[in-house]
Design a protein that fits this description.
The structure holds two protein chains of two kinds. By secondary structure, chain A is an alpha+beta fold. Helix content of chain A is 46%, strand content 23%. In chain A, the strands form two sheets. Chain A has a five-stranded antiparallel β-sheet with strand order 1-2-3-4-5. A three-stranded antiparallel β-sheet of chain A has the order 6-7-8. The chains are: A alpha+beta, B alpha+beta.
């Protein structure tokens, strides 16, 4: 994993860490699998006796969607970055809807580490931070399992030393 | 322990033995509904069949409608009895006490035994409520609100009003870090909302006023044109807002705010009365809401977010909004005074505002003039809304996290929004559509201010400050 300087430098001294490119593979795999039923429908449209332009339009539309989603996944994954500062964690993400979340370590209630079956096969893990606010939306997908475990332990440790009441 | 309270074998306290009966009465109307669903159409025929049984010949003497009603009522009573029997078993299993650490414990459950320990330093609010059924028996419910995700509160059903107040006193005294037998803190009434003003304020909300005006026009038009079809329409446009106004009036009738060393006491309700004590430092965020037609009178409503209060789904239909109102209507000066009592450092009148840039009108053509964020050493505040103006604020120390977001339309205009997250509640602190770069600076600045604010915060045992 490399530090980044291309994503806007929020504050120049901070070290931003990008997530693993394996997440792109994992998400594209999921995309491919969710395309299967769509392909099946298009195939059926070609077989049944209806005017030919309908299945052609359907095929073109799903192909365009697939290419767009494929490309978007690459950009979205590249947009994920996090930065551990002395007192808080920054998470930034998003292409169309961009966001930056600042979570103070003292406010963390718990840290989740999750990985689905595809994620596990490819070796990517999600770390999610929860605070007492339901609206805090700080999850970092696509971390290598060891890095995720280290991050979780570091966050938990910092949370303990800086914890505050509500 | 007070002599009036009932004790079990371990010396733990019990709720009042009449509780199963109160539970049964409380569900009687609902059980009536169930009974009607079972037998509304069949009620008469059931009555017919029953009347042929020995001992029930009297039913045939009643008119069919009365007989049907009698059957439904009997069914409802039977179902309520089942509830009473179940609640009796539950009552036997329920007990509560203060443990050696001074924390409050509740043991309950028939099949699944549950013991809940309430850390008193985490208490967010203590309520004594009297639902209508409980009032009939002069009983009350004690609710201890604790911060937590789901249903983290403790409800004790039912206690005599005196017992409920006694336990509230002890819980608050222990939570404040005082001796358990400290006398109940005296309270001074600060204000009481006059019924007339409450009713008028509810009628003057724009949607209500608009719908009622529309209703008047429809009725007038129907009268003039003698096209009576409009009346049915008027029933809907007039009926819905009236129901809203009346139900909200019943909830907030006689809203009284009193100050005591344990915190602010709120009493309200016409049929179901509530008495809430909010200890100092428990309010996470506040919001002033000023509908268009209230501004001529200088009125405002104040909403508050208290951790764990009003965010449960199991609390029933008794208006979760009602749980989070500091005052339903008051003059702005009085409202500011009340806010100063729950959040002493928070003074939104002196804040300097950073307003949204002029180009924000392309994103929010109506409210852009009022969009702004502001802060001082103690608090962060946001302004939004044009027709109904909203001013939300929270102390820096109550910041859970800070978010900067930018949608596609905002991005095209180089605008961005800053959200300051707090515990779930009615107050949303969001500075909408600010200048993009400025918003990012504000987000970072707020993260720093929150850190400093936390360092100064000491509100756990409030009597020990």
């Amino acid at each position: 994993m490399a530090t980044t300087n291309t994503e806007e430098a929020f504050t120049s001294s901070d070290e931003w860490v990008r997530v693993s490119p394996k997440l792109v593979t994992a998400r594209r795999l999921v995309l491919g699998m969710s395309m299967l039923p769509i392909i099946a429908v298009v195939v059926v449209l070609f077989i049944v006796p209806i005017p030919e332009f309908i299945p052609i339009i359907a095929a073109v539309a799903s192909a365009v969607f697939f290419i767009w989603a494929w490309w978007l996944i690459g950009r979205r994954v590249r947009s994920y970055a996090y930065c551990e500062r002395d007192d808080d964690l920054l998470v930034s993400s998003g292409i169309l809807f961009r966001r930056l979340v600042i979570v103070p370590y003292g406010r963390m209630q718990l840290v989740d580490v999750t990985a689905g079956p595809i994620d596990r096969a490819l070796g990517v893990t999600t770390v999610q931070l929860h605070t007492a606010a339901a609206t805090t939306d700080a999850s970092i997908p696509g971390l290598e399992p060891t890095i995720a475990a280290d991050l979780r332990d570091r966050l938990a440790h910092r949370g303990e030393t800086r914890s505050a009441g509500l | 322990m007070p002599g009036s309270a009932l004790l079990d074998a371990q010396g733990h306290r019990k709720v009042h033995p009449i509780s199963p009966l109160v539970h049964a009465v409380a569900v009687f109307p609902a059980m009536g509904g169930v009974a009607i669903a079972f037998s509304a159409s069949g009620g008469a025929s059931i009555a017919n069949r029953l009347s042929s049984l020995p001992g029930l010949e009297a039913l045939s003497a009643l008119s069919p409608i009365l007989a049907a009603i009698a059957v439904v009522a009997a069914l409802a009573a039977l179902l309520s009895l089942v509830v009473a029997a179940y609640q009796y078993i539950a009552w036997r299993a329920l007990s509560f006490w203060f443990d050696d650490d001074g924390d409050f414990r509740v043991q309950s459950g028939v099949l699944f035994r549950q013991q809940r320990r309430v850390q008193l330093s985490r208490i967010q609010a203590v309520d004594v409520t009297q639902p209508l059924a409980a009032r009939v028996f002069s009983m009350a419910v004690l609710v201890i609100e604790v911060a937590g995700q789901d249903d983290s509160r403790v409800r004790l059903k039912y206690l005599t009003l005196a017992d409920a107040r006694e336990i509230r006193r002890e819980v608050l005294a222990r939570a404040a870090g005082l001796a358990a037998d400290t006398a109940e803190a005296p309270q001074d009434v600060i204000t009481k909302v006059p019924p007339g003003r409450l009713a008028l304020s509810l009628l003057l909300r724009l949607s209500t006023a608009g719908l009622l005006l529309l209703t008047a026009i429809i009725i007038l038009a129907s009268y003039v044109s003698e096209g009576w079809a409009g009346i049915g329409f008027a029933l809907v446009t007039g009926g819905v807002p009236l129901i809203v106004v009346i139900s909200e009036y019943i909830r907030f009738h006689g809203f009284t705010v009193a100050q005591s060393p344990d915190g602010l006491r709120l009493h309200y309700g016409l049929l179901r009365t509530e008495s809430r004590t909010v200890p100092p430092g428990r309010v996470q965020a506040i919001e002033y809401v000023e509908p268009l037609l209230w501004r001529r009178f200088g009125w405002t409503r104040v909403l508050v977010t208290i951790a764990g209060v009003g965010n449960d789904s199991s609390g029933g239909n008794q208006g979760q909004q009602g749980n989070t109102v500091l005052i339903p209507v008051a003059h702005i000066d009085l409202a500011r005074d009340l806010v100063a009592r729950v959040l002493p450092d928070l003074d939104t009148s002196a804040i300097t505002w950073v307003e949204a840039p002029k180009r924000a009108w392309k994103r929010s053509p109506i409210q852009w003039r009022n969009l702004a964020v502001g802060w001082d050493e103690a608090a962060f505040a946001t302004r939004r809304g044009r027709v109904t103006k909203r001013l939300a604020a929270l102390p820096h120390a109550r910041t859970q996290s800070v978010r900067w977001t930018q949608g596609p339309w905002e991005r095209a205009l180089d605008l961005a929004t800053v959200h300051v997250d707090t515990t779930p509640g009615p107050v949303g602190v969001s500075g909408l559509h600010l200048d993009g770069t400025q918003a990012r600076e504000i987000a970072h600045h707020q993260a720093g201010a929150a850190r400093e604010g936390r360092g100064r915060d000491h509100s756990i045992h409030w009597a020990h400050e």
